[in-house]
Specification:
Radius of gyration: 32 Å
CATH superfamily of the largest domain: Zinc/RING finger domain, C3HC4 (zinc finger)
Protein name: RBR-type E3 ubiquitin transferase
Number of strands: 13
GO biological process, one term: protein ubiquitination
Pfam families: IBR, zf-C3HC4
CATH architecture of the largest domain: 2-Layer Sandwich
Keywords: Metal-binding, Repeat, Transferase, Ubl conjugation pathway, Zinc, Zinc-finger
Strand content: 5-15%
Enzyme class: transferase
Shape: elongated
Amino acid sequence: MGQQLSCIIPHANDEDDNPIPDFIYEDEELQLQEAILSSFVHSNSAGETSGLRILCRVCTEEKAPEHMFRHKGCSHVFCQDCISKHVEAKVDENIIKVTCPDPTCLTELEPEICKSIIPSKVFDRWGNALCEAAVQEEQKIFCPYKNCLAFMLNDGEDPIREAECLSCRRLFCAQCKVPWHSEMECRDFQRPEARKRAREDMALIELAKNQNWMKCPNCKFFVERTEGCPHILCRCKFEFCYRCGSTWSPSHSGCQGIS
């Protein structure tokens, strides 16, 4: 019959005149679990510890030592599944300093130590968040487009104004933290009335891009084609091709512009 060890230490008899305080039991239990886990780590034969079980204080299940996790900075032992879920939950909450699940312990877990038991996507997000936090605030640049928001780093000494997002490849102003305002200087854009108008214009440009609208080359008004051929007669009487934006002519055909 295999060796069976319980990590739950029985409470003292209620009739005992000198009951031992609970914290002593808890301390002894931690020492016992640490000893069991250490014996597994240093064991040369899996059979020597095949009957051992360690209690996880999160899920309250007893599991084999090879399914347990203990950080080098503290003596608390939890199962790998619970540690994985604990880390993922904290990363989802944008908490990058993940501590031991024990509420009384402030030991910080490290990504490299947890790498083998957490999903790769969680590991990458955790690592990226830690790198981002280590960067000085003035070096941080975020893409202003709401469907991107990519994080970038300005590792040069000079301030950046016109920038291209490395993820979505769209232009933006790194100083104003908005989509690129090509026809306006930053000092002008910062004026409340100009900023409001520019935001409205850029919102319209973004909408036009999403709806596949074309701007008339002559009057600069946006035109939407709902059906029919690409030959467009604008309200300014200018004729152009909706596919490529060039001036329309009787011989115009076969362009490879937008559809």
